Amino acid sequence: METITLGKNVPTVPPLCIGTWAWGDKLFWNYGSDYGPEQLQAAFTAALEAGVTFFDTAEVYGMGLSEKFLGQFIKQTTQPVQVATKFGPLPWRFTGQSVSDALTESLKRLQLERIELYQVHWPFAFFLSQETLMNTLADEVQRGRIAAVGVSNYSAAQMREAHQILAVRGVPLAVNQVRYSLLTRQVESSGIIATARELGVTILAYSPLAQGLLTGKYTPENLEKLSGARKIDPKFGKEGLEKIAPVISLLREIGEKRDRTPAQVALNWLIAQGNVIPIAGVKTAEQVKQNAGALGWTLNNDEIAEIEKITRPWLN
Questions:
Q1: pLDDT at 310
Q2: HSE-up (13 A, CA, CB side) for residue 199
Q3: pLDDT tens digits for range 178-199
Q4: For 148-184, b where at least 16 C-beta lie within 10 A, e where not — what string?
Q5: Active-site residues: which are they?
Q6: Which of 114, 120, 146 has its CA nearest to residue 134?
Q7: How does strand 4-5 pair with strand 12-13?
Q8: Helices (H), 200-237
Q9: How far is Cα 72 from Cα 132, in angstroms, rounded to an integer?
Q10: What's the pLDDT tens digit per position in 194-239?
Q11: Which residues contact 287 (CB under 8 A, 6 or more apart)?
Q12: Coil, strand or helix: which one is 260?
């Protein structure tokens, strides 16, 4: 499988990442109701079988359970796995030591001595300055506990500042993890994508299927199937679904020619942007197999242009 380098001269990973927010999370994902450890173990195994060995987690996912599950599953395989996790700059974390301590706890839960990527979960650092934060992360690169430094939800200006602080230490900023899909293209119009290209920063795209809107599963005719937060989200209402119908229709049309699903076409479009890795959240082996169907083929230039054109209303 082809691989992508995270930023400049740092780890190489598959062009698709497995998201583990739902692993152990009861609040948003109802962990323990319709899925549990067995389903997550099967999802992990299916990912490795598909060659997708890059996993994204965070200390806050499932209050640490996501990292614990991932660590347990990694221990049961001899296959190399690349792990990305995240540090939450909470108000009471205002020293460099608090950053290192959080990393230590994540590594314990993951049962690892080193991870490929450590990301700052959001840009609001409260009493912790970006200088202290980035310099501590550079220290951890030198200590060998992390291979690459990343940020998440940073604006173009915030990304540039982090890049500059790290550059003084000779450490490249590897990634910026942002919400990016055909229905959330604001990262293009806000300059984040252009700045990332300029700086050599890889984009990790979370919610690449717009909470499932791009799967084609939800239509104005089957609103009664909605559950949880989708019931009150206007994007999943009749008007919202009617608005995206032309997009789903085009994805379906292109997919039918290639024996692919609308979701697989949507993920492939992101990969085709270059230097973009979609993070596909999964709970089951079947979801992994579906997402992995976005790999091993490429949209042609005309298809990419068609999809770009029809989704321009979502640039702003």
A1: 98
A2: 29
A3: 999 999 999 999 999 999 999 9
A4: bbbbbbbbbebbbbbbebbeeeebbbbbbbbbbbbbb
A5: 61
A6: 120
A7: antiparallel
A8: none
A9: 32
A10: 999 999 999 999 999 999 999 998 888 777 777 666 777 888 888 8
A11: 43, 280
A12: coil
